[in-house]
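ok trying this again, last paste got cut off
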Amino acid sequence: MGSVDKQTVPATTPRSSEQVNLKHDLLSAIGYILGVSYPVLALSTGVRAIFQLFFKDNVVNYLAPSLSAVAAACYLVAAVGFLYRRRWTWYLSVIVLGVETLMTLVVGTLSLLYPDLIGRTVWHHFGIDYGFFPLFQPLLGLVWLFWPETLRAYGLRGSTRAAA
C-alpha cells in the first residue's frame, strides 16, 4: 500500500467576515420584507373591510368585515416592529403576531365548523383567500423576531447598537 498524503483540515473553520455580513444582511432583508408585506396585507384587508362595512349592499353579518378590520390593524401595528428596530417595537410585534396567530387559528377553525357565522374574513379557512399568508406570515415573523441576530439588532441581547 502506498502512502497517501493527508491534508490537515481544521476541525472548525472560522467564520469569515463576509459570511457574518451576508447573514446579517439576509436577516435584515427578511425584516424589511416583512415590514413591506404587512402594510400591503393591511391595505388589502382594510379596503375589503371598509367596502363590506360601508358600501356593500345587503350585509347581514358584520362579524367577517369587523374581523378583517381587526386583522388590518394588527398588520399595521406589526409592520412598525419590523421597520423600526427598538426594544418596545420588538415587544409590540411579538404580542401582535401572537394575537394574530391565535386569531388565525381560532377563526380559521370556526370558519370550518360554522361557516355561516364566521363568513368571509381574512382569517376564513386560515387565510385561503390570501394564499394562506395570514397563517404563515405571523409564524415567519415570530421566528425572525426570536432569531438571536434579530434580538441583538433590537438591543435585547449583547448588541453593538444602542437600544432606544
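PB: full thing came through this time. The chain has one domain: 20-153.
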